[in-house]
Amino acid sequence: WDGPVLYQSSRLEAYRAAAERLLAEGRAFRCRCSRSEIRAGSGGPSARYPGTCRERGLPDADTAIRARVEPGLVRVADGLQGSLETDLAATSGDYVIVRRDGLPAYHLAVVLDDAAQGVTTIVRGVDLLDSTAAHVHLQSALGLATPLYYHLPVVVNAQGQKLSKQTGAGAVNAADSGVAARVLELLGLDVPRELAAERPTMIWQWAMARWSIDTLRGRRALAQG
Hints:
Elements: H1 12-24, E1 28-31, H2 35-42, E2 64-67, E3 74-78, E4 82-86, H3 88-91, E5 95-98, H4 106-116, E6 121-125, H5 129-142, E7 148-152, E8 154-156, H6 177-186, H7 193-196, H8 200-208, E9 221-223
Helix pairs in contact: 4-5, 6-8
């Protein structure tokens, strides 16, 4: 993308128009359910939306907007994780596209922003894989092209938790030769011993000439040593 920076605050009208179109086509509906009501309606701790407001025809005021999900499989062809199938009706149910405060939800904003910028390939962590079925579903509802997805494995600790600020993980120091070599090992490159002590820029240059994303195919987690 070589165009200007896209700010979501400048695209509120585009989000609103897309949501209104889905409402008019019967592909979305207004909802006033709280999280506790959703849990109660699902019969337990599940976050699956039970369809409570689907046929209520609620007015505009103080409501969220949900995309209507029908039973059936949403298929995603992922460049690393392979062919995936998700029954959104069984896993999440009707999902929010506009929040109750009127702001666009993540699913709607990212789908419309990617389309507006002509994004054809999306590379992101496998921890976002659960969102992809909703994005593909929404792309179809809006008549938008589906990009090619690559969901990268995430680095995990001994407890299987993704390394992040929430789990107390520090930032990667790319200027440290030892750290650079270790990161590349996690990515499937065996850095020669004589190179591991060189300047990080030399290590990265060596890696860029040799690394292929295919080394991560089918992997969802990279264990930290």
